Each structure stands twice: as C-alpha cells, then as structure tokens.
Amino acid sequence: MLYRKIESLIDEHLRSGSQKILLIDGARQVGKTYIIRYVGKRLFTNYIEINMIEDSLGAKLFAGIRSVEDFYLQLSMIAGDRMKEKENTLIFIDEIQAYPQLLTLLKFLSQDNRYTYVASGSLLGVTLADTSSIPMGSIRKVKMYPLDFEEFLYANGMNDIAVTAMRGKYERLEALDGSMHQKMMDMFRKYLLVGGLPDAVKAYIESKNIQRVREIQNEIREYYAADVSKYDAERKLKIRRIYDLIPSNMENRKKRVVAQSIENKKGKIFADYQDEFEYLISAGIALNVQAISNPVFPLIESAGKNLLKLYLNDVGILTGILYGNNIRAVLDDECSINLGSVYESVVASELAAHGHKLFYYDNRSKGEVDFLIDDYDSLSAVPVEVKSGKDYTVHSALSHFVKNDDYHIQKALVLSNERMIKTNGKITCLPVYDVMFL
After folding, report:
1. If 0-12 CB within 10 Å is exposed, 13-18 middle and 19+ buried, where does residue 30 land?
2. pTM of the predicted model over 0.90
3. Residue 176 · residue 184 · CB < 8 Å
4. pLDDT tens across 99-112, in order?
5. Which of 116, 243, 264, 330 has the fewest CB atoms found within 10 Å of its own CB?
C-alpha cells in the first residue's frame, strides 16, 4: 500500500479514546477512504463502514435521521452484529456531506460516547457553512491532500534512512553530492508528470505507462469539473469555467484570476463569483493564494480578498493538460519550455499539504514574490521564490523585499534546479526538492 503521513494521525486519534470525532476533509480521489479503512480494520475487531453517497442513491436509510436513537436503529439493520463496545467498535461514516444533518448529529454521537467514530467527506467547508449547528467542539477536522513529494519518494522505493539523511543535510544547509542530486531531480521531474493522486501513482508504479497515468488524471479532472451537484445549471457553468481557466491563468505573467475573463463580461468583480471560488477551494480541487498588501506576521491580517491566484490541487493534472503524453518536455528540461507555472504549482501544493496558508506579494512598482508563509518560530513572514530556469540568482523583487525594514523579514528562500545551497544575506538558495522539508 502507499505510505501516507496521515496514517499515524488517524492511528493516534483512534487509539486515544478521545470523545472528539475525527473528520477527514479533502478532495475526491485523494485516498481518504482507503487509509481510514486500512487503519480502522487494523485497530478494531468490529469495523462498520457506511458510504452516505451510496445510501443516498439506494436505500436512503439515513436520509431522514435526526436523532442518535434513529441513527443506531438504522445502523443495526445492516451491522447490528458488529455493534459491540466503544473499545472494539469503529463506525466509519464516509461521504458524510451527502446528508448535511449528520454533521450536526456528530455532536450528539460524540456526547453519547457509545462507539468510536471517524468520518470523511469532501466539500465540508461548503456543507458546514450551510449547517445550522456546527459541532466544532465535538470534532477534530483534518485536511487531506494528494501524495506530497516525500510520500511519492516512498512509493517509488526510497527508504526512511535516505530521506532522514537528506533532511539532516537540509537542516545543516549542506548540498547533496552530484549523483544524489541528479537522482532527486529525476524523481522530482517524474513527480511533476505523475502528481500525487493515489490511482495515478499506483498506475505509474505498476506500469510506467504515461498514457495510463494521463487517462486516470483526465478522468479525475473531468469528475472534479462535473461534480457540482449542489448548484443550479448557471452556477455550474461558472464553476466549470473558472476551473478550466486555471491552467491558462498560470501561463500568464501575473497568474491572477481576472474576474472579467470568466464570462468575458466587462464590469464583473470578484464578489460576483464568491460562491464559485468558495466551492472550488472548499472542494479541495483548487488551491487559493491570496494577495498581501502588508507582508508582516501574521499574514492573514492583511490578506486581500480581490486579488487571487488559483492552482490545481495536483501537478500531474496540470502537466497532463499542458503537455499531454509528451514526457520529454518535463524530463529533459527543454530550454524552449517554460516550466515556471508547473514548478509554482508543485510548491503551492507542497506548502498546503504541510499546513501552510498560502499568500503572495505583488506591488506595481516593486514586483512580485511568488509565495509568503508564516514562520511561527521567528514570528515573521518568509518569502519563497520559485525558479525553473538557470537564472535562479536573478530575483530583484525579492532582493528589494527583504531590504524593507518595515517587513521584519528574517530569511527568504529561492527554490531552483541548482544543486549547491548558497546564502547571501537573508536569502538562501535551495534545490527545489527541498520544498518537502519546509
């Protein structure tokens, strides 16, 4: 099976005996059901799984549930022989968003404390916003993403000893030797092609067939774009249009979403598409990077709402759209191909998977910095610049940025293809694969 970091979190929570119900949120096809099922069956003698989307399309046993007693009664019809004690009975409520009232019911199931529970779903941000009673004190909500680069390395046979050794070198700011650097860059470029969706990673490992990988990615992309059941036909079209525009926006110099281009209507502003943006972000199929006007810690205090960059949640989907089955564009690092948007996309997904909220800086006179993240150790913002070409030492906007004393910048990072790690003042240049350690 594929190694997932979230496995240890699920394991720890279910062993803890906590009354809080673990709620795993994330886009479809990122592996939520598989990893919960794997841990649940390993830890509990009596494992009960109910998929609420399947129920909504079939028997609808849980459609009208409003009380704990009713929930147990319906559950007993399909799993009564496995409803034992809390210590040995796990009830996994999958795709819980199909019945929003069950999110409220989690509070009462937690208080009842009769069994151990775990739940998962997508669109939980949207669903919780429409829920009359949000059970925040009774749940532990955790976001799950596609495989990050470190997980991809493990999937491809790299062991913990090698990754730990590389982490140590990163922490000491020591470069890898030439051969190891080449191996890591080769794996990084393959990650750009394959991405982190579990089915695509498995297909790559088993077949090394890029056409099969692309078929899976295209199927999932179409599924993401079509899965807008919550909204009416007009809004579905707007969501699909915004989603389809993400790759072309990434190829633009500014990479920002332009509200007027969504429907090609002058006068349109971000507020006109607030629900559509919220859907894509809450569904986990797009990552949002907000503009910052005053880049000081904590960044959220000065985030702008009208300037936004969107990235696809998986870099493999992006390279499939841009390059199709032509792997040479990525693997050979062709001089004629600008991989800037691809590198930025993978850095965005990596930072998000590591728990960072994403921001960027854009000043008309001083230029743009690709990413800003909060550093809770130094209580300052850390600018991150991403370079896909050979001009990694050219970063005038970043250089001006770190010299501004008002911003209290302690350190800045440049990620590139370069092997050597170099520090010049506050700016440290790192190999791009070291993003897995940020």
Report:
1. buried
2. yes
3. yes
4. 989 999 999 999 99
5. 264
